[in-house]
TrEMBL record:
Residues 7-17 have a biased composition (Pro residues). This is Alpha/beta-Hydrolases superfamily protein. Residues 1-20 are annotated as: Disordered. InterPro entries: AB_hydrolase_fold. One of its GO terms (cellular component) is chloroplast.
Amino acid sequence: MALALALPPPPLSQPLKPPRKALSCRCSATSQQQEGVIASSSQLTSLNYRPAVILPGLGNNTSDYDKLKLTLNGYGVPAVVAKVSRIDWLRNAAGLVDPNYWRGTLRPRPVLDWYLKRVDEAVNEAKELAAAGGWLARVYMEEFGLSNISLLLTLGTPHLPPPKGSPGVIDQTRGLLNYVEKNCSKAVYTPELRYVCIAGRYIQGARLLDDPNVNPSSAAYVDIGEPDSEVAIVNAASLSTPVSPTFRARFVGQGYKQVCGQADVWGDGVVPEVAAHLEGALNLSFDGVYHSPVGSDDDLRPWYGSPAIVEQWIHHLLN
């Protein structure tokens, strides 16, 4: 999922410098207590911040984000959640009758028109807001324009299509991400439109079969096929990585493999870190952060919208 702000901010005395390439930063997900969020947010409620639209991720519904909406309100950020129910996602089955689905060349429209309509309804509800989230954000921005959008912030969004020709990898989007990659504008971090992509490092995946030539505690690099887009998966032994991969790590790894072509990488339990970053954006990675509000726990398994995690990225909405 993701959220974005509308209405360009007032001129800056010192303009922001866009990153030369996809910048990356590691952050801890457990460094702040929830009480600190409440105390700090109480000082901000009198300010008038631009509103945000929250778009539910695949399989989620509007009510899953009620707590995140309240958390943002606590910081003085008005928020609207697009109206989506779980059963709505069955509408995507319409793509099955499109020959492009079976060829792996499916396009977002008209299959996802229902979702883009919900985005537009949320935008109208927010009145002065035009925003979208996830990889569909780029489709929405391409179709409806950028004039009212000043920030796109994505949370665990798979931005990149899986590499072609990888054994055992099937594009789960049936070509949708390939379309976005080829037809949507590239991310360029500027003072007028900022791209911030946040990834979670909740669990490291593992291959189904052990490779004796691979040291799981060493640094690895994943080449996603773009110059200057090589993402380092750093040594994470301090996060209690087991020496022998567990069944869970192997299971999660197979999910990661379908997204980025490699199983033994870090991710939020659903989306691998390397796929959640976008070349040209400000890319951040948070340790210990889970993918979805469903199945999360603010203390033991926080997700991107847990209060202690929001505290670490909220400044991108407030500045």
